[in-house]
Sequence to fold (380 residues):
Amino acid sequence: MDFNLTEDDLMIQETAADLAAKKIYPNAEKWDEEGKLPQDILDEMAELGYFGMLLPEKYDGLELSTVTYNCAMEELSAACAGLMITISVHNSLCCEAINKFGSEELKDKYLPNMAAGKIIGAYCLTEPNAGTDAASIKTSAVKKGDKYVLNGTKTFVTNGGLAGVFIVFAVTDPEKGSKGISCFVVPKDTPGIDIGAPEKKMGMKASDTREVSFTDVEIDAMNIIGAEGSGFKTAVILLNNGRIGVAFQAIGIARAAFEEALKYSKERKQFGRSLSSFQAIQFKLADMAAKIDAGRLLAFRAAWMKDNGVNVAKESSMAKLVCSQACNWVVNEAVQIHGGYGYMKEYAVERYFRDARVTEIYEGTTEAQKMVISRQLLRD
Ligand SMILES: Cc1cc2nc3c(=O)[nH]c(=O)nc-3n(C[C@H](O)[C@H](O)[C@H](O)COP(=O)(O)OP(=O)(O)OC[C@H]3O[C@@H](n4cnc5c(N)ncnc54)[C@H](O)[C@@H]3O)c2cc1C
Fold:
């Protein structure tokens, strides 16, 4: 077994770490305060290829493996998790939806512009009354001639206000349950789309989250991704991949919080000694480091399996489950090591603490991951 990253992995990781140190981390607090990302960072990331990381070269993508891509994602997340999720949803859920399941026509039409960051994607599955129970969505897509007409509301849509295309899951046959759900590419400028105001969130504030409603939105029938009725399966496969990204996101946040806590514990003195000289603090640091490494190994295993064509339903859920729980545990300890200062906005751990929370919620809650894992265990 070889635990070494390849030269390509290391190169992408170092490039991302350099960008994160120079351009992202120094601005992350400001973007968190302002609740949005400036266009210039999105433009710069587009220029560097961050919007086409998984896409084939023939669509102007970088065609990175899941392992290599996630080496970069961990670095972005450690600097600004809100920026990372903006990029990650676009790449792993939206570009991949079209690349893996779309027609050649859809790929030619959308992927080069998505790789260039000219069109950003948003993934619209969750509805006000359908979250964990995603198969119960009510948004409908009714076929009329060579068009589908969409009606419904999607909630908590990451990139809702930035998107040029929405990947929308809608019911085409209400009689068939999850087998009656289909997936569509919906261009933002189609009449009948209403994009809500940015949600006011606990964390990930730099990311854009909105409600998106569709009222009699007519799209060409060719905008269906995959066969009619295959949408739920598509959503599940995409989320298996997306969860690997959230696992690396969680590890990025946890690592950053750990590094802050380690540094602070050496600088801060109480009782005439550094905090790091107390065994109680040393043990916290040891536990934090061990949990981060354990989570990262699970995340790399899932990424590696995906790159090797193995079904990762169980392993991506295990990685997300363990990494997001470890992340929340680690950020809590990082705040604790900072004492009262950790509760103040001047210290980055306050932001990491808020950003960490959603890693246990989106792309399937902690409970949803346990459902996936136990279902697989009982099936075997
Ligand atoms: C910041 C943010 C960004 C998001 N971005 C997107 C996006 O881009 N696209 C998108 O489609 N969605 C997005 N989501 C939605 C996210 O995926 C959902 O919030 C998540 O799947 C949970 O759904 P819910 O909020 O409706 O909670 P619910 O499903 O109502 O669950 C509430 C609680 O009950 C638990 N629960 C539910 N069912 C069971 C059960 N059977 N057994 C045990 N426990 C159960 C859950 O685990 C949870 O703890 C985002 C959410 C947030 C907060």
Summary: The pocket of flavin-adenine dinucleotide is lined by residues 89, 123-126, 131-132, 156-158, 201, 204, 209, 358, 361-365, 367-368 (CB under 6 Å). The CA atoms of residues 151 and 215 lie 5 Å apart. The domain at 121-229 is CATH 2.40.110.10 (Butyryl-CoA Dehydrogenase, subunit A; domain 2).
